[in-house]
Amino acid sequence: MSVKKMERRKILVLGIAIAVIVCALTFPVHAAEPTTSVHIIKYASDGTVLGETAVTYEWMKTNLLVCGDGATHYYHQGPVFDSPPGPWNPDETTNFKDKGAVKGTNVKDLCDLVGGMSPGDEIKVSATDGFSKWFNYTNVYEPQPRQGPIVLCWYKDGNYVPDYEGGMQIVFFADNSTNPEHKHVFGNWDMHECLSEKYWHNFSAVYPSTNGLSVKYIDEIAIYSNETTWNLTLTGNETKVYTLDEIKAMPSYTASGGFKKRSGAIVGPYTYRGVNITYLAGLVGGLTPSSSVTVTASDGYAMTYTYDQIMGEITTYNATTGEPEPDGPVNMILAYEEGGKPIPDEQGGPLRVAFVGPDSPITDGHFWIKWVNKIEILGGVEEWNLTLRGAAITEVMDRSTFESGVGCHGVSWTDDKNRTWEGIPLWKLVGWVDDSNKHDFNDTLADLGYNVTVIASDGYSKTFNSSFVARNDNIIVANELNGTALPEKYWPLRLVGPDLKKSEMVRNVVEIRITELMLHAFDTGEPDITFDESFTLKAGETYYYTIRTGSYPQIIHAREFNATGGTITCTEFLDTNEKIHDNWIPAIRLERFFSLT
Question: pTM value?
C-alpha cells in the first residue's frame, strides 16, 4: 500500500511540472526590433491632422542634414543613487551610457516636414513597444549647447538599421562643455538645467536618469500643436463652411495690388492669388445691387462692404505719390497666397481680403481685412459721413473708415436697459483733427483748454470741455447697437457713455467741431493783425482795442490774463458761431515784440 501511494505522488508532481512547462510555452515573447522608417504627424488643437508623412532612414540620409560623424561617441547618464556624488551628479563623474559612434537626423528637421512646431507645442516620440517620451518646442528647436539637438539615430558603430540594434534611437548630441573628461555627455544635471520638470525621466520614479530619454525602436513622432484648423463660414440664403483646402480648390484669380496706410505709406503692390468674393457669395445665393457683405476676422474685427465696393468701385491711389487717381479695374478677392506663397499669420493669413487687378491698383488699407473666417451676405447698407473740424483741418470720415477705426480702437458700453453700444471714444476722433498728427491725441492743447461740440443732423448740439473729453473712454461715438447698425432714430451715430447725462447723448451725430482750433476767416479783413502806425503803451494806462481775426488756435478761458508787462482783460469775444463770450482771450503769436513802458 505504501509503495503505491509513493508512486502516485511522483506521478502527480510530474504532471504538475509538465503543466507548468506547457503553460509557460503558450505565452509569446514580444521582443522589439529595430525600425527603418518613421511616421511623422501633426495635430491641431482639436485633434485634426494638419500634416502627415512617413520617411525611411535612406531618405533621411539622402535628403536631410546628417548629424554625427560616425566616430564621435555620445553618452547619456544612468541613475546615480544616494551615496556620493548624489542623484544629480552635477560634476558628471559616473554611470555614463555609451550610445556609440552614431549618426542620424535632427528631430527638428523631421518636424518641419509636416509644418514644424511653434512655441508651446509638444512632441511625443513613440517606440514600437509602446514606450514614449514627450519634449517641448524649446528642447527641439532651441536646445542649449549642453543639451544639443535631439537626434533620431539610424547608424551606430558602422551599422545602419536594422543591423543597428536598438535603432532607430533618440540620442541627445550634447557638447562636451560640462564634462571634465570632455566627453559628449547629456548628464542628469544637464537635464535639470535644460528640460522642464515635466519632461524629466526618473528611474524607479525616484532617481534622475537621462538614459530613460534615449528611446529605442522609434516608429512615430507626433506634434501636438496649438494651431486651430481654419474654416470659412459663408452665410446668405444658407450657411456653408469650407476648409482652407476646399477654398484653394475653388476657381482662383491672380493679380497684383497694394494699399495705402493711414500714415500715407504705400505697401506693395504684391501679387495675390485667391477666390473672388462674388464667386464665394454665389455659393450661398449670390449678390444683388441691394446687397452688402460683412467680412469678419478671427479677432472679431469686421467691415461691411457695399455692392459697389465689392464690384470694384473703390478709390485708387498713385503708387508713387499716394494721390487719388482715376479708378481702374479692381477685383475684391479672398487671398490665400502672396508672392506665390501661403500668406503668413503676421501678414493676415491664411485668408485675407485683397483688392487687385491688371493695373496693380493701390486702395485704402482699412479695406484689407486680415484673418478672415466669416463672410455674410446682407441687405443693402446706406452710406454716411462724419465731419470732423479742428486745427485748420476738416476731415470727412466715411462709414467704412469709421468702422475700420472701431476695429482698431473700438470700445463698448452696456446701458441700464442691457443694450450694448459700440463705437470709438470721442477723444480718439478729436485726436484726428486737434493738430496735423491724426494718430495721436494732443494732451498739451487739451490741458490749455478748448471745447468739443457734437452736432446732430437737425442742428442739436452739446459742448464739452477738453478736460472732460481727454482720454475718456466713457464718452463714445457709437455706430452699433447690440451688434448691428443703429436704428433710424439714432442713425448713423449716437453719443453715449456712462459719463454722460441723458440730455448729452446726442442722436444722429454728423459733425464734431473744435471751435477754438478752427481757422475760419471773417468776411472782412485778413487773419494777420497789423497796425498802420507805431505807438507806445505807457505803464498804468488802460488801452481798448478791437481785434478781428480769423485765427485763434488756442483760447485762454479766463476773463483776465497776466501777460508780461500788463494785464489783458476780455470784455467781449465773438466766436465763429456768433456767440458772445466775456471770458475768452485769444492766444495770439506776435511777429515782433514791443516792450510795454
Answer: 0.45
